[in-house]
Amino acid sequence: MKVKPFDYKKRNMSVWNEVAPRYHKRWATAKKGPFQSTKKLVELIDVKKGDHILDVASGTGVVTKLLKQKVGKSGFVVGADTATTAIKVAKKWNKKSSNLLFVNADAENFSFKEKFDIITCQYALFFFPNSQKALKNMKNSLKESGKLGISVHGHPDRVPYFDCIFEAVTQFIPNYVPPGTPDFDRFGTKKALRDEIKKAGFRKITVNDYNFPYSPGTFDQYWSNYLRYVAKPIKEKLDSLERSKRKELKEMVKHNTKPYTKKNGIIQFPWEVLILTAKH
């Protein structure tokens, strides 16, 4: 049975409220692997002093922080996210500032009185059930001269960090990802991402692809960190497996990581990131 968008959003918000502090510490602030893209995204949208910028699905405020530094005191940045815990982390990490505001808002339904010079959205477009509604909402919030900057993970074959586990786990737990959940890689090719943005009415679209390699350490470190940081609903499904099945699952994941494992036992994953820029 397909999950209704509202139910999916509610579940997703609950998950992000739980994992936000761990996500912030392990990923967002590390500037390793895929989060090397934060600097690249901000470079590509060419932020100017005095710009007014909206960071959609701002999470724990990583992109927002860099944007605030770029716009200077004469500029203004708004970070919008549905997860209240993520906003709390973002506020603490960014510190209070007269030119920075974090708001609790849904990408598909937010509304601001003013129009922005730039709108950014890093690693979130694929989460939106109605991505067209979210994109058109962003377009309506941009000035006529405004710019859009979006980052997404690339094709699963070029982001094996996730797929090495996902491909194995789904053989043991068919409902590992609840039905109705948007595909994580639905915009994982240049064409798919460009077509989606074009459909929403944006123009002068450019998509660049980058590889930001990431090492999770040895296999045991990779596997134990996954189990440690995974969201509670998923961890409960993994914990429900019989011991023999868990052992079998672990071996299958280990087999999947072999092509990326060096002789010294350290895993080095490629990590493709697509960064798109477009005009209103």
Low-pLDDT regions: none
Tally of DSSP helical segments: 10
Overall tally of structural domains? 1
In the CATH scheme, what's the topology name?
A: Rossmann fold
The number of distinct β-strands equals 9
> Mind telling me the CATH superfamily name?
Vaccinia Virus protein VP39
The rough form would be described as: globular
- Mind telling me which CATH architecture this is? 3-Layer(aba) Sandwich
The chain-level structural class is alpha/beta
Mean pLDDT: 88
Strand order of the largest sheet: 3-2-1-4-5-9-6
Query: What profile does the largest beta sheet have?
Result: 7 strands, mixed
Quick structural gist:
The chain is α/β, with parallel strands linked by helices and about 280 residues long. Helix content is about 45%, strand content about 20%. The protein is globular.
